[in-house]
Amino acid sequence: MMRRLFYIAVFQLFVTTTVLLGQGLSLAEIRKDFKVGHKDEKTCVKHLDALEEYANCPIGRGYEAAYHMFMAKHTGNPLKKMGYFRDGKKMLEEEIADNPNNIELRYIRLCIQYYIPSFLGYKDNIEEDKRFLVNNLYKLKDKETKQLIYTYLKGAKMYSDNELTLLGR
Fold it and tell me: Which residue of 4, 84, 94, 153 pairs with 72 in a disulfide if CB–CB is 3.0 to 4.6 A?
């Protein structure tokens, strides 16, 4: 009887923990909303809060860095703007330094560098990251994420037709 109660308690703990973590962080949703995080403050804040609490892998921390940079657009205070941007940039660069072959981290950096204003001085890796993605996106095991990235990059019009052909293989 005691053994059975023990297993029931362990099972309930497992289910509760899984549900709570699942509610706190959904990388699929964060990936999907990546293209609107800089436009929609509510989405940005929601994802940043979840990422700050639950991000525990390079990709999660990469998106956390991106959403930090997106927050710069949603505050009026110039000091806070620069703080959000600098903190996010530092976080993303540290993740890429630790994981230089991570396809999704390179995608995040490319998108940010491609679209931010030049005066911020964060445009040094655009060509490098474009080449990296052309040469490596096909290696991404997660087909859904691969398609999401490809569709976004195709719509961004930062690649030539020949590059898109290679990117989409």
Answer: 84
Task: Let me know: does 30 contact 63? Beta carbons within 8 Å.
Answer: yes
Burial label for 8, CB within 10 Å (0-12, 13-18, 19+), is exposed
Torsion angle of C-alpha atoms 93, 97, 103, 109, degrees rounded to 10? 20
Cα separation, 65 vs 118, in Å, equals 19
Whole-angstrom distance, CA of residue 36 vs CA of residue 40: 6
pLDDT tens digits for range 83-133:
999 999 999 999 999 999 999 999 999 999 999 999 999 999 999 999 999
- Asked if residues 10 and 2 have their Cβ atoms less than 8 Å apart, the reply is no
Between helix 58-71 and helix 103-115 the angle, nearest 10°, is 10
- Distance separating alpha carbons of residues 135 and 11, to the nearest angstrom: 44
| Residue 82, token pair as written in the block | 């620069």
| Burial track 107-116 (b if 16+ CB lie within 10 A, e otherwise) | bbbbbbbeeb
Residue 50 CA to its chain's centroid (Å)? 12
Of 68, 70, 65, 60, nearest to 40 by C-alpha is 70
